[in-house]
Amino acid sequence: MNDLSTEAARRRAIAWATALAANTPLEPQAYEQGLLDEYAVGALSLEQVLRLLDERVKHVLYRSRATQAFREEALSELLAEARAWNEQHGITGLLCYSDRQFVQLLEGTAAQVDLLYARIQRDPRHRQVTTLSTAYDAQRFFADWQMAFITAEEGEFHWVLTSLQQTTHSASLAEQYVRDSHLRTLLEAFSQA
């Protein structure tokens, strides 16, 4: 095995490994690349990188359309079910509902988030489940919530969706119209503008 005691050697090894993984599911995302960069300059050991990779949080942000309008009682039942499942499986996040549309952020270990998202995709209460973002990070944005919940007014919901789906300057426009602190956190974390 090559000696990786110098920054140059670590950079060559990282360049080789990332080139090998390019355009595959193993290609490093931003969080992983950041850890590799810290390893390259000697700020983290390989053991620390591996530990941080094991502890990383997976975020899945999606939107969907309800097959029928949810009344307050149905939303309460959905939330009770979601919060119980999430508490049992270490999932946190945010659910936003407006006029038969959902936007939801799931966060937790990759295995638990993937399991839940697969269940959500099969749930007959909604359709057109569209993934807006999948990413890894060191932190949760809604760590104190098994499922934070927002019922957004139609105009505010429009700006949230526009900002999350487009790569234009819609995030700055959304900031003018989105007042809810949870939705602003979501926009700050996931807007592509």
Description:
The structure is a single chain. The protein is an alpha+beta fold and 193 residues long. The protein folds into two domains: 48 residues, no CATH class; 134 residues, Alpha-Beta Plaits, CATH 3.30.70. Strands 4-1-3-2-5 form a five-stranded mixed β-sheet, sandwiched between helices. The longest helix has 18 residues. The radius of gyration is 19 Å and the shape is elongated. The chain starts with 6 loop residues before the first helix and ends with a helix.
Describe the structure concisely.
This protein is of the alpha+beta class and 193 residues long. 50% of the residues lie in helices and 21% in strands. The mean pLDDT is 84.
Layout of SSEs?
Layout: H1 7-21, H2 30-40, H3 46-55, E1 57-66, H4 72-89, E2 92-98, E3 101-108, H5 110-122, E4 126-137, E5 148-151, H6 154-165, H7 170-177, H8 181-190
Parallel strand pairs: 2-5
Antiparallel strand pairs: 1-3, 1-4, 2-3
For the biggest β-sheet, the strand order reads 4-1-3-2-5
Could you tell me the number of beta strands? 5
Structural class: alpha+beta
SSE succession: HHHEHEEHEEHHH
Could you name the ranges where pLDDT drops below 50 across 5 or more consecutive residues?
A: none
Helix content: 40-55%
Strand content: 15-25%
Number of domains: 2
Dominant shape: elongated
Continuous helix count = 8
Top-tier CATH class of the largest domain:
Alpha Beta
Q: Would you tell me which CATH topology of the largest domain applies?
A: Alpha-Beta Plaits
Mean pLDDT: 84
Radius of gyration: 19 Å
Distance between the termini: 43 Å
